[in-house]
Structures are given as C-alpha cells and as structure tokens.
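Discussion board: Methods & Data

I've been asked by a reviewer to show the raw model output for two of the constructs in my manuscript, not just the figures. I'm not sure how much to include, so I'm pasting the format here to get opinions. Each protein appears as its amino acid sequence followed by a line of discrete structure tokens. Is this the kind of thing reviewers expect to see in a supplement, or should I convert it first? Here is construct A:
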Amino acid sequence: MNPLDNIRVVLVHTSNAGNIGAAARAMKNMGLSHLYLVSPHRYPADEATWRAANAADLLDRAVVVETFDEAVAGCALAVGSSARERSIPWPLLDARRACAQIYTEAQRHGVALVFGREDRGLTNEELQKCQLHINIPSNPEYSSLNLAMAVQVIAYELRMLQVAGTLPADAMTGWDLDYANADAVERLFTHFEQALSAMGFLKADAPKQTMTRLRRLFQRTRLDTMEVNILRGILTSAQYWVRKAGGGKPDGDGS
C-alpha cells in the first residue's frame, strides 16, 4: 500500500481558481492524487484547468464539499497549516517533522492536509478541529507563501519520505573508480611539496601553511585513483620543465 494514497489535500474557501489548478499540479508532481475543495469561490474554472497543466485529471476527480467537517470525514488525522502562533498552544511541527508523522500514520489510516484561505488561512475553529498544526518556517521579513507553494513544500517532503529507500545516501554511490587510499594521497602530498619547492613556490626560509591548506583542499574532495594519477602526472611534467629550464638534476617525484 502506498501511504500517499491515504493522504488528501483539502483547500478551504479558495478564492483564486488558479491556485486550485497550481495546487493540483504540485500534488501530481509529488505523487498525491486526492484533492478536496471546501466551498471554493469559483470552481470549475478555466483558470484552474490551465494552471493545472497535465494534472487536470486531479481536478476532474476533485471532491467538492460545503463544510470543513465533510472534507476531513473518515480521516484519523487532520493537519492544519498555520502561519502564526495561537493564544492557546497547539501541537505544532515544522513541515519536515510533521510530514514524518503524517507519512507514518498514512500507512494505517486516512490523513487530511488542510490549507486555508489565501488572505487569512484557517480560522481558529477550523484549526481546533485538527490534531496537529504544521508550519513552514519562512523568512520572517517576508513570510507570506502562495497557497500552491505551501502545498508544494509539504508534498515534496512527503515525496522524499517515499523515495528515501530508493535514493542513495551517498552522492558518490556508483562512482566509476575507487577512492584513492591513504597511502596514495600521502604520496600525492609529498609529491606536491617536492614540486612546489623545485618551482620556488615553497620557501624553506619562509615557512607558511601552504601545504596544510593544500591538504585541507584535497581532503575536502574525495579523490579517486585516476584523479590522484592525473595530479601526479601534472606535477611530474612540471618538475621536468623546471629541471630543463635550470639544467639541474632530476628531483624526486614523491614515489
């Protein structure tokens, strides 16, 4: 069973029909498919269909009801979106933590995600019918989120929970070559020091933290075996031209 199939998105008294279409598009992008509309001001509407793009099928299946109670009927958990604190504290979580609870509970029973009016959100009475409040911690200097944007953020968090088991935890998973081992990396650093000294870049009588900073640079990067070989090849070539220019004897290459 797909937990996302147990989640419905409820839009309460939406005034802009385009926002309904945009919310439907956000839902379909992230795998949500059940849309409930509580007394929309204007629906159906061409603007909703246009903004939905290829998610018009969600609009065709949308359930239009008159009251909040009808929209959440049959759900064991109703989660109300809230942008502000209330005089009486209520269970409140940010979007990521709330979605973890939503996704877990959706494996057992129906969940309603409720979004309020564009201009003033959900009423206190509506929020008091929700077991949990969800907040998207936006920039306090400009905290207003478009309705469809709010739906998108929460739908994305739910989608990430669904695909967590299929996405690699390490961005380098499937890399084409093995990481260079510690010995190979140490030989690279030795080679760097020899080459930079030969070039006159490192001064024995004016020690700096150059090698330490180079170590930090390359240790931040997980060098693979080929990358180490390429860098050492560059250093070897640089040493050759330094020797040729100075007529000196070959320097060590850090091997």
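Construct B, same format:
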Amino acid sequence: MKKLISLVYLLIIVHFAASGQQDPQFTNNMHYKLGVNPGYAGAEDAISGILLNRYQWEGMEGAPKTLVFSVDAAVNVFGAPGGLGLNIISDQLGFEENTTVNANYAYQTDLSYGTLGVGISMGVFNKSINGQWEIPDDELGLTVPPGSDFAIPQGETSQMTFDVGGGLYLSSTDYFLGFSVTHINQGAIQYADLASTYLARHYYFMGGYNISLSDPLFELRPSLLFKTDLAGWQVDVNTNVVYDDRFWGGISYRVRDAVALLMGVEMINGLKVGYSFDLVTSAIGYYGFASHELFVSYSIDLERDRNKKYKSVRFL
C-alpha cells in the first residue's frame, strides 16, 4: 500500500501540463499577507519582517516543505505615502523545488472608511527538477522503467520565468479587505520539446474583523482567505481570541482539507512567535499525516516609544 501511495503521489506532482494550485498554502495566512497581496506592503506603518517554516503532511516521503522570508516597510516614494516589500519563498515538493523572489510596491491613499493600498509585485520564479527518479514495483505488478517518460526531464535541470502580481488592500483599525492576483503574466517554463509548464493565475480574496468582547482584555478576530485558480478553489476560515494584545489562540478550518489549532505570543514589544498544527481531514489524513507551521515576526515602529504597548494590525 505504501508503494501504491507513492506512485499516485508521484504521478500527481509530475503532471506538468496541469494548471492546479501551484502557490504554497499557509495556515497562518492572517500573519503573512504580503505573499499573495502586494497591496499590503507598508500597511502597518512600520518595518516588519517574518520568517515562516511550514512542514506539510509530515512523515510522507517527498511532502511539501516551505520556507519564507518576508519584509515590508512604510515609505514615501516621490512624496507619496506607500510601502515596499520583499518576498523570498523556497517551496519543495518531491523532486521539485520552486523559488520565488519578488519585490513589492504599494501606493496608499486615505479614504473615509480606511486606507487603501494599490500594489504590484515583480520578480522571478525558478523551478528546479531532479529527474533521477523511478516508480517502484507496486502490489499490482506494474513497473515503469526509469526515463521511459520523455515528458519528464532526466537529471537536474532548472528554468526561470518573470512573474508579476497585483492587489488591493483596504484596512482600518477594525477590519481589512483584500483582493489580489498572482502570476498575472502566466510565465512559461520550457525544459524540452515535451516538458513544459506555466504559472496559472491565482485569485485571492481576504477579509477580517476585530470584535471587542465584554471583557476589554479579550478580542475576537475572525478572518478568511478564499483562493482559486479557476480550476479549483479553497477557503480558510480562521478565528483567533486575543488576550491583552499579547497572547492568541484559535482555530482554522480549510474546507475539505484540514482543521488547525493556532497559538502564539508577543514575547516582547514587536517580537511574536506563532505555531499551528493541522489535523488533516481529507482522504490523505487516513494515513496519519499532519502539518506543522512555525513563524517568528518582528515589527519596528520608528515613530513610537518602543516601551509603550501598541496594537499590531499583523494580528488581523
């Protein structure tokens, strides 16, 4: 059975012509918005950075592993308020490794109901493949010799493509809304005459609200993230309860995929550590696989006294 699972998994990830969900997913998406929406750059009126590590389906051979470094800052460009940001993402999936590096800029304007960021991201997407692979014999007696599929490059190979995204991000002290598109130009990656793929456009909608509870030390912060590539879709529904603007815990539900536990703490003013544990509810969860995610973030507001407590919108 293990060999059969490996065979099915391998066939899924090597189907280059398919335009499935290519962007990595994050359970702590409410803490890392810049990865899918450049309009978020500078929204905190601070210099903010995050280091995030995700282990998906831990225990499965070739399971996805994602590492993120991201930073953004509020700046004035040519006298106009805005934000700059940088994303570096390494996403490993079986014999495939994807690396994204992009720069983000958002122009910000104040509206009567919040601040609107209009953003664009530009960068490169590199796909590396180690095609030294073979499908093992399974219980059905099937054997596929190495190198028999000429649509799959043999040996190590790597190709890069230009990548563009855009987004809108509206926020206030009580709520946020965002709409964005990644891979607008649908960059093509060509390895050989029969081996090619491209980056399908992905569309994102995000939203959240802060709800004050009867005890002023507690606040409820629900949020959601909807994502689709027009071939499939997924929704994350999240709820965090925050105590004293320092401790949070909650639950997240990813439709037809997982239920996750969320927790974290602001250790000192601006430094936060968060963790999530995904209980897989899809069919793959039958085999005992689960997902883990850990992040560390830090925000510096140069216009505030660092010894004074403040309310960070990164919790939204």
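Answer (T.O., handling editor elsewhere):
This is acceptable in a supplement if you add a one-line summary per construct. For B, something like: The chain has one domain: 2-315.
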